Amino acid sequence: MTPRFATDVITFYHPDFWGLDSADAVRAWALAHPVAFWERVMDALTESGVNGIELTFAPGDIASALRAFGSASAFGGELAARGLSVVSAFIADSDAPDWRDGDRLPEIVADAERRAGFLAEVGAELLVAGLPMRATFGTRPPFFVDAAYMSRMADVAHAVGEAVSRHGVRLALHTESHSTLWYERDIDLFMALTDPRYVWLCPDSCHIALGGGDPVAVARRHAPRIALAHWKDAVGPIDVHLTIDETVYARQQPYMTEPGEGIVDWRGWAQAMSRTPGACTVLIELDEAADPVAALRAGTAVARASLIAAV
Predict the structure, then answer these.
(1) What is the rounded distance in angstroms from the CA atom of residue 307 to the CA atom of residue 309?
(2) Which secondary-structure segment (H or E) carries 250?
(3) Residue 207: in which H helix or E strand, if any?
(4) Residue 267 — very low, low, confident or very high, per pLDDT cuts 50/70/90?
(5) Which of 111, 237, 279, 300 has the maximal Cβ count within 10 Å?
């Protein structure tokens, strides 16, 4: 089976790609010109040979697609006319109700259902979410990722997963660096506490490696529940004691690299992925590539070679 190749819209967020001088300038320009933003992204996807996309936080979010084209069906039509499609949408923690606030569960579920309705209308079947971030090591009082915490997160995931399933959409949890679903132990605990009919996994090879974990081992253990995976490389384990605030994502960037240039065992990863329900899609994640077309071509070449070697 030949998989479809996809990427996250974040691939296209680098200021150099837009001839601008900062990420803030890109967001401001895209907000003012949503049609032009999406047309350039779609043209670049077509040129790269990648035909699937994961929506994320602004400017490549659901709200932006609706501003540009008026409806989910119109957005889907624009993509289809170019041979493209939506694979999934990612819920960024800055763009959604906090899962730690139990009193907000109705709001959390309603937000997820809104996104699932959009996904269903464009023909996509996956909503990707992350668990809340950890607290900076040494914070007082301490915040522990223990069984009680994970049980609460499982309750939220069950409510969200059941709600979006009524739209024909599956919920998959992403293994974000410095989040409460980062270490191998976090992943194993959360998956053990959640119902496989309603909660799926979206492992990220880079982020698991950044936490000192083995992405291939994780993928093999949880293969039956992997609905999608993010294929990304890491230069090595990250400092686990980074200050966790709004700057943590930018400080993670130097530890990330393009597929084939880091420590991920791509042959083992490809072999594990080929045995999952998400095997039909390979999502190459490249955070803010200055030349996204070239980077996507290189990334898909590594993935293809790894898939062939894994047979």
Answers:
(1) 5
(2) helix 248-252
(3) helix 205-210
(4) very high
(5) 300
